[in-house]
Amino acid sequence: MSSHVVFFLVPGVHLLDLAGPAQVFSTAADFGHPYTLSYVAEQPQVTSAQGLPLAAELDWPELGPEDLIVVPGWRALRLAHGPAIGATALRAFRDHHVRGGTVASVCAGADALGRAGLLDGRHCTTHHDVQDELALRHPKATVVRDVLFTTDDRVITSAGIASGIDLALHIVATRHGPAVAAQIARDMVVYARRNGHEPQTSAMLRHRSHLDDTVHRAQDLIDTRFDEALPLPALASAVGVSERTLTRLFSRATGLTPLRYQQTLRLERAEHLISHGTTIDAAARTVGFEDARMLRRLRARTS
Fold first, then answer.
1. Residues 283-293: what's their mean pLDDT?
2. Whole-Å CA distances, 196 to 28, 237, 256, 270
3. What is the distance between the alpha carbons of residues 282 and 88, in angstroms, rounded to a whole number?
4. What InterPro entries does the record point to (predicted)?
5. CB–CB of 124/147 below 8 Å?
6. What is the mean pLDDT of the chain?
7. pLDDT band with cut points at 50, 70 and 90 for residue 245
8. Which of 32, 67, 96, 183 holds its CA 20 to 30 A away from the CA of 302?
9. Model confidence pLDDT, tens digit, residues 97-137
């Protein structure tokens, strides 16, 4: 299903707040996940904080529940000194959320969502320099400090600047799976995608902080088929190297053998299933173990 991403631009918008998420969704479209991007403002041209003039549309497109509004941040020492945002735009934010859509912000953009009433009763975050002010301006919100992003009832806020990339990759991972998000991060040379509320725990992304294309291609195969038998000869053949070379490159890049990496993915998925009430035996079968003994041994090693 195609999704429309609308970026709402204000004077003084930070380029990376805008360009980071836009690049993520544009790359997702390149990989066959259809996203249409558009840019709306209250004047036909806005000048970014970095001095680049940006053209924008004045009319809001029709949006459905699968679509997304993103409000990038802007340059201002205080939120109170930020740009005025008219009633039409604030109503567009609210109406889209009421209709089941998702609304997101980067950095100071959280204040725009707050002005629309979308932070009331929800968790949110923003750049660390203005977290206290955001809490004062929107006392019904719960400001979560020192995290990259928060999600609460289709309202997603991120800390600022580069964290907009993390926010966008999170949205992609939620909609299309972590393997797609990892593929996009790799293409963007964003070597590790970070999580919002917690330290990076996803093995699928934690072991991507390297530059070896052969290993990345092997990981792509393992990520999408971790619950299947993947013999080393077949994996090496698929990426065009010998078994010995693949094992050497893989271990040097990730610290794991291909088999251990696959087992790590299986264990992580099994732990998620068990935490949601699945029995150990059922979880073991779901993630590809022939019986639960190997899963129990792996869990014992990490406990």
1. 93
2. 20, 37, 25, 22
3. 52
4. Class_I_gatase-like, DJ-1/PfpI, Homeodomain-like_sf, HTH_AraC, INH-QAR
5. no
6. 91
7. very high
8. 183
9. 999 999 999 999 999 999 999 999 999 999 989 999 999 99
Q: Are strands 142-143 and 35-41 parallel, antiparallel or unpaired?
A: unpaired
Is residue 19 classed as helix, strand or coil in its secondary structure?
helix
For helices 213-224 and 258-275, give the axis angle rounded to 10 degrees.
40
**212, 226, 221, 220: which is closest to 254 by C-alpha?**
212
Burial 34-73 (b: 16+ CB within 10 A, else e): ebebebbbbeeebebbeeeebebeeebeebeeebbbbbbb
| Model confidence band, residue 260 (pLDDT cutoffs 50, 70, 90) | very high
Residues 6+ apart with CB under 8 A from 180: 28, 31, 33, 172, 173
End-to-end CA distance of the chain: 41
Rounded Cα gap, residues 179 and 173, in angstroms: 7
Q: Name residues whose C-beta falls within 8 Å of residue 126's C-beta, 6 or more positions apart in sequence.
A: 73, 105, 107, 108, 110, 111, 134, 143, 157, 159, 160
Report how far residue 20's alpha carbon sits from residue 233's, in angstroms, rounded to the nearest whole number: 38
Summarize the confidence of residues 220-243 as an average pLDDT: 93
